[in-house]
Design brief:
homodimer; Arc Repressor Mutant, subunit A; Tetracycline Repressor, domain 2; 2 domains; 12 helices; CprB_TetR_C (chains A, B); HTH-type_TetR-like_transc_reg (chains A, B); TetR family transcriptional regulator (chains A, B); DNA-binding transcription factor activity (chains A, B); DNA-binding (chains A, B)
Chain lengths: 207, 207
């Protein structure tokens, strides 16, 4: 294996081991030794890639941050209406959280303010802004219920999505986050979407 | 001050100081010395009340657990319909979280699985069950929208309420949790409540 590939594989092995250990016991309770043991990497190799456990957490947060724009662009290119795009994008996000331990650990670390002291900003304003943009698009296309304010609806949607992930991750390490998220839509959309859009969406769900 | 009262006051001072420090820096990052300094209590007096920082966390969790049945009973005795009771009870819960640092710290600790290793169960199934019971009452009184399943609606409401608290606590130590929770209802109730009930509720809000 060429040296660069080997370095990349080592880095990936460390991130995966860290994600799995943090998933199991939480960031604070996980000693570096457990991550080394699980990754099969020497201390020397570890410190070549990461100066500290905190640097590892920052790398995990960065790894999940890199995933979302890609998913969002993919959905933007599909020609769905803004609400279908929002629902499809969110579906892909939670699917990824359920199946990818590195992404899951990164999301959890980015949300748990106390876990690391790296001065990283909370992701919530970012998520609210992304939802707000998508709902602005839906408002422009006449897809929102009368009287619904996109900024307020974005905060409500974000709260429900954050809560579904938090509860699912606490109860079963996010194993049922896809189902818990899917269950939100019939309730949330009733309060957010225009009646005509809802009829089409319910028809499509029955088919 | 009689000895028993003094012991109670000391215990309360320690819990309040711990709650404030955990609020500021998180459980893991808070050393016992910071709690002692803030409470003005000697090490000896501290250990008379609590054997460890973990015992302190368990006491804070117990303190918030004791609050909810009392609030729920108060609302049950008011003769409101089941949905009004649910909304009123939740309003009192978040009001308490916003204004009482001891309760706020206890809720946060009970939710953050990784924070303490005391093997305490997650509170989410309990909250879902409480909401489920109230929604069963609403279903029995014919107040739910056609097709709404109380168990599913309870999970959705719980997710939204948990998320509003988590986001608010991360962004401003729960200062706006009352507003963020209030903002959920118009969206959530549209998906959960029967149309007739909604009309009455919206009329009452306008008045």
């Amino acid at each position: 294996m060429p040296q660069q590939h080997r370095a990349h594989a080592t880095r990936r092995a460390i991130l995966t081991a860290a994600a799995e250990e943090f998933d199991r016991a939480g960031y604070s309770a996980t000693p570096l030794s457990a991550i080394l043991r699980r990754s099969g990497v020497t201390k020397g190799a570890f410190y070549f890639h990461f100066p500290s456990k905190e640097a590892l957490a920052t790398a995990l947060i960065g790894a999940q941050e890199a995933v979302w724009p890609e998913l969002r662009e993919r959905w933007a290119g599909r020609g769905c209406d803004p609400l279908q795009t929002l629902i499809g994008f969110v579906g892909d996000v939670v699917e990824r959280i359920a199946t990818d331990a590195v992404v899951r650990a990164g999301v959890r670390l980015s949300c748990e303010g106390g876990a690391i002291d790296a001065g990283l900003p909370s992701p919530y304003p970012l998520w609210e802004r992304a939802l707000h943009e998508m709902l602005d698009g839906a408002a422009g296309a006449g897809l929102l219920r009368e009287g619904v304010q996109p900024a307020s609806a974005a905060r409500v949607l974000n709260a429900a999505l954050v809560g579904a992930r938090v509860v699912s991750c606490a109860l079963n390490r996010c194993a049922d986050v896809v189902e818990r998220t899917r269950e939100l839509w019939p309730v949330l959309l009733q309060g957010v979407a225009a009646e005509e859009w809802l009829h089409d969406w319910e028809d499509a769900a029955v088919r």
